[in-house]
Write a structure and sequence with these properties.
This protein is 25% helix and 40% strand.
Length: 374
């Protein structure tokens, strides 16, 4: 009985050992197969890097302002007696816009005229009496002073009446009227906007490091949201740097035929520095933008460190970027002309990954794109 039991245990042990050896060999084969496995190559599009001439430009966002622009306001308090303009009118310098009631001033003027005339008569009589020795010279001097005072008082009232006739300070286009007939205005109350739009300013700011390349007279182009494109010139560069932003204010002047640029409008500004640089041009889709550094993937012959076999793969290169234009980005370093750079599919790559190049459908790569849906 004991002998039979021992035989059974031996058989069971040999069976278990056989299964263990079989599983060990099976697992080792799977590990070997997994270590030799390589993922299928990724399909990408590429472009051969080429060096191009890039015009040296500076870009910014600008704001349009009128060459001359004011809010016409009441110089003195008074009641609106007449309005001589409509909203949106073109007016000439000196044209009457509004007249305020001057009945009280006209009465004061009549009184001042009477005092002036009386003072003149008294002065004339005194001059005759002095010649005959009837009155003293001092009396004549007093009457002369009274005559000048009366004349000055009359002129002051005339000036007050003139200030109640509000005229356009310069030629331009009026905005929306802000007063009504019979309305009482206080000193400084707004009447209407007036903007001279034959020429306009575009104000923008540039980082302090770029202003050294800028000079007065540099050509500036702007594009507004309504599609208006114009060219002008830099006419002023601020002598101070903003301590909060470290930017420098710049002002350019533009002719504005048809008043197509309106004060307050935002525009895209490009300043032509008149020079050009050579740089490798790549589509923006090829760039991996990252906080630790921008990079691209370059297609090269890669050697597998295990099998020592060469295959078409990619290596990652960190690059230094320059300016942008349309779909393109200038690469200043990290890439040389002739390198084959991945333009789409880079997000799924890693250094050493195998790739298949299929350039049937490439991403846009235009310096001045004109999308059909824009």
């Amino acid at each position: 009985m004991a002998r039979r039991m021992g035989l059974m245990l031996l058989i069971v042990g040999l069976f278990v050992a056989g299964i263990g050896v079989y599983k060990f060999l099976q697992i080792r084969a799977a590990i070997a197969q997994g270590s030799s496995y390589s993922p299928p190559p990724e399909t990408v599009t590429t472009i051969v890097a080429a060096e191009e001439e890039w015009p040296s430009t500076l870009s910014a966002i600008g704001s349009v302002s009128a060459l001359q622009g004011v809010v016409v306001s009441a110089d003195l308090a008074g009641v609106v007696r007449s309005i001589s303009f409509n909203s949106g009118n073109q007016v000439k310098q000196g044209q009457v816009l509004v007249r305020l009631d001057t009945d009280q001033e006209q009465a004061q003027l009549a009184e001042a005229n009477a005092r002036r005339d009386l003072a003149k008569l008294n002065l004339e009589r005194a001059e005759q009496l002095v010649e005959r020795g009837v009155i003293a010279q001092a009396e004549l001097d007093r009457l002369r002073a009274e005559a000048r005072t009366a004349e000055a008082s009359e002129q002051a009232i005339r000036a007050t009446i003139g200030r109640k006739t509000i005229r356009a300070p310069f030629s331009g286009q009026l905005g929306i009227r802000q007063i009504d007939l019979g309305q009482r205005l206080n000193e400084g109350d707004p009447i209407v906007d007036l903007q001279a739009l034959g020429s306009v300013y575009v104000d923008f700011a540039l980082p302090q490091g770029e202003v050294s390349q800028l000079h007065r007279g540099a050509e500036v182009s702007v594009v507004a949201e309504n599609g208006v494109e114009m060219k002008g010139k830099v006419t002023a560069i601020n002598s101070l740097i903003d301590q909060a932003t470290r930017n420098v204010a710049v002002q350019a002047t533009f002719a504005n035929p048809g008043a197509r640029l309106k004060p307050g409008m935002f525009v895209d500004v490009k300043v032509d520095l008149g020079t050009a640089v050579r740089a490798v041009s790549l589509p923006a889709s090829a760039i991996n933008f990252a906080p630790y550094g921008n990079s691209v993937f370059v297609v090269e012959q890669v050697t597998d460190p295990k099998t020592k076999k060469a295959y078409k793969g990619v290596n990652q290169r960190f690059i230094k970027l320059g300016r942008e234009r349309g779909d393109q980005v200038a690469v200043l370093s990290g890439i040389k002309p002739g390198d084959e750079v991945v333009t789409t599919g880079a997000f799924k790559l890693r250094p050493g990954a195998a790739v298949v190049v299929d350039n049937k459908l490439k991403p846009a790569n235009e310096a001045a794109p004109n999308p059909a849906d824009s």
